[in-house]
């Protein structure tokens, strides 16, 4: 409870914050599971709907583009209250999933209906993916915000890992979509019961009224460090989304099975989650955001460059190890970059910068998928022969259907983006920032000698 005495202000955090955070995590998991529903079984889905794999790729791409369409509405909704955003996501999630199921259940599968349902679920994504910084700012202190943002943000790729790992084992395409629709329905219900606002603010910075949307946009647009962080973050998100969506098509021309490709996608995400779980508390305590961003972005870029040659080894080690490195570095830097963006744009409202940055990342992800698909070797793949030979039989380093050129494109983009975060914080370049949210909270703690209570 907030009380006044001898000019001291006591801030309190509430246990109910964990319920809202848990629901945000659950929805991010399910929505990302929706995103990659068909990616790990792309060849099977293409055969079922009698369409090309390019069409199946558009299920992922259309999902990502949907994010951009909803950005203005999401910013407005989150600025009002995170609960309204979570409720909107739940409604869209329900509608989209059952439309997808109707499309798969129709005689022979109706791809157009499935695509429509996929776009609806894509519209739900930004309402919860862009919410973590706003929610953590509203409910958590400076010693818990990175962790809260990490848990809820990284739940999204965890849902992708579940899709990569589980979907190939869910049976037919119809059964797979049905099971996911049931899960989505169950996940949406708790949104009705999450708390709207904490009774009192958790910290000094949270007690300061947030800037309205339009002034926040002006503040962010005039911040050169914010531009650097936003563009870098969006580029790596785009690369991650493209690689996650296409990993099956990258590997199967070399004889990898759908199960092995699915496990590779799961390794990418599960190792990332473990790494983020270890690193987020460290960043919460040290607040060494700049160092983390610079080191982790460099590691990610080098791993994408090395990935160009991984499928040609026709072994599990290279793709799995590099995917693990990409996942570990990408997931660890994600919440740090988001919180640093809030820090350098303070007192702009947190959801404005994070939503725009996520939208750009999703847009680039969709663009990268389209470009990488266009760079794919257009020779027809004899799937039966590839499966019969297996990856251990060797063969050409550029087999029919290979995505070598696409991986080169991915590696080049990663290396081009690498220098940008390295200049953050350099005063001579105008990339340092003034007083931020952390400084406000630390001054309050030092001046009042009071820690938040629970």
Q: Could you tell me how far the N terminus lies from the C terminus, measured between alpha carbons in angstroms? A: 9 Å
What CATH architecture label applies?
A: Up-down Bundle
Oligomer: single chain
| Largest pleated sheet | 2 strands, antiparallel
Discrete helix count: 19
The CATH topology assignment is Growth Hormone, Chain: A
Contiguous low-pLDDT stretches (5 residues minimum) are 1-8, 449-453
- Strand runs, count: 2
Label the overall shape. globular
**Can you write the helix and strand succession as a string?**
EEHHHHHHHHHHHHHHHHHHH
- Provide the gyration radius in Å: 22 Å
Please write the CATH class name.
Mainly Alpha
Strand content: under 5%
**Whole-number tally of structural domains:** 1
The secondary-structure class comes to mainly alpha
Membrane topology: Multi-pass membrane protein
GO molecular function, one term: transmembrane transporter activity
Keywords: Membrane, Transmembrane, Transmembrane helix
Main location: membrane
Describe this structure in words.
The chain has 19 helices and 2 strands. The protein has helices at 17-35, 42-49, 53-80, 82-105, 111-129, 132-139, 145-166, 173-188, 204-207, 213-221, 224-251, 258-286, 289-306, 317-345, 350-374, 383-389, 404-417, 419-422, 437-448, and strands spanning 4-5, 8-9. Residues 1-8 and 449-453 have low confidence and may be disordered. The longest helix has 29 residues, at 258-286. It starts with a strand and ends in a 6-residue tail after the last helix. The protein is mainly α and 454 residues long. A two-stranded antiparallel sheet has the order 1-2. The protein has one domain: MFS general substrate transporter like domains (Growth Hormone, Chain: A, Up-down Bundle), CATH 1.20.1250.20. One of its GO terms (cellular component) is membrane. This is MFS general substrate transporter. Its main location: membrane. The chain crosses the membrane at residues 21-49, 55-78, 85-103, 109-131, 176-194, 224-243, 263-283, 289-310, 317-336, 356-375, 403-424. It is a multi-pass membrane protein.
């Amino acid at each position: 409870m907030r009380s006044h005495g001898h000019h001291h202000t006591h801030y309190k955090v509430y246990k109910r914050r964990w319920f809202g955070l848990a629901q945000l995590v659950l929805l991010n998991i399910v929505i990302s599971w929706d995103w990659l529903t068909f990616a790990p079984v792309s060849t099977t889905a293409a055969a079922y709907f009698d369409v090309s794999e390019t069409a199946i790729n558009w299920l992922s791409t259309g999902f990502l583009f949907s994010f951009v369409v909803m950005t203005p509405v999401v910013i407005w909704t989150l600025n009002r209250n995170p609960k309204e955003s979570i409720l909107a996501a739940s409604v869209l999630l329900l509608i989209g999933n059952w439309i997808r199921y109707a499309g798969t259940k129709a005689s022979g599968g109706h791809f157009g209906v499935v695509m429509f349902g996929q776009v609806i679920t894509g519209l739900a994504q930004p309402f919860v993916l862009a919410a973590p910084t706003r929610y953590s700012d509203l409910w958590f202190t400076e010693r818990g915000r990175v962790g809260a943002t990490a848990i809820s943000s990284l739940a999204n790729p965890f849902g992708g890992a579940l899709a990569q790992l589980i979907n190939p084992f869910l049976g037919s395409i119809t059964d797979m979509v049905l099971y996911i629709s049931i899960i989505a329905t169950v996940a949406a219900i708790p949104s009705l019961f999450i708390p709207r606002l904490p009774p009192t603010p958790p910290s000094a910075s949270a007690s300061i009224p947030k800037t309205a949307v339009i002034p926040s946009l002006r503040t962010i647009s005039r911040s050169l460090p914010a531009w650097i962080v936003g563009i870098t973050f969006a580029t790596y998100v785009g690369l991650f989304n493209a690689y996650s969506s296409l990993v099956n098509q990258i590997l199967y021309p070399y004889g990898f099975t759908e199960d092995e490709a699915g496990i590779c996608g799961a390794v990418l995400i599960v190792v990332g989650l473990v790494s983020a779980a270890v690193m987020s508390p460290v960043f919460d305590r040290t607040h060494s955001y700049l160092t983390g961003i610079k080191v982790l972005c460099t590691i990610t870029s080098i791993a994408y460059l090395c990935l160009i040659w991984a499928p040609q080894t026709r072994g599990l080690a290279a793709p799995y190890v590099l995917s693990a490195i990409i996942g570990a570095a990408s997931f660890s830097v994600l919440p740090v970059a988001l919180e640093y963006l809030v820090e350098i744009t303070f007192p702009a409202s947190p959801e404005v910068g994070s939503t725009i940055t996520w939208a750009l990342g999703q847009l680039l992800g969709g663009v990268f998928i389209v470009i990488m698909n266009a760079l794919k070797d257009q020779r027809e793949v004899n799937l039966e022969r590839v499966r019969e030979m297996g990856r251990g039989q060797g063969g050409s380093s550029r087999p029919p259907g290979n995505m070598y050129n696409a991986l080169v494109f991915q590696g080049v983009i990663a290396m081009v983006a690498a220098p940008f975060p390295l200049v953050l914080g350099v005063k001579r370049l105008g990339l340092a920032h003034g007083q931020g949210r952390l400084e406000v909270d630390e001054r309050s703690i030092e001046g009042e000698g009071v820690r938040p209570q629970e």
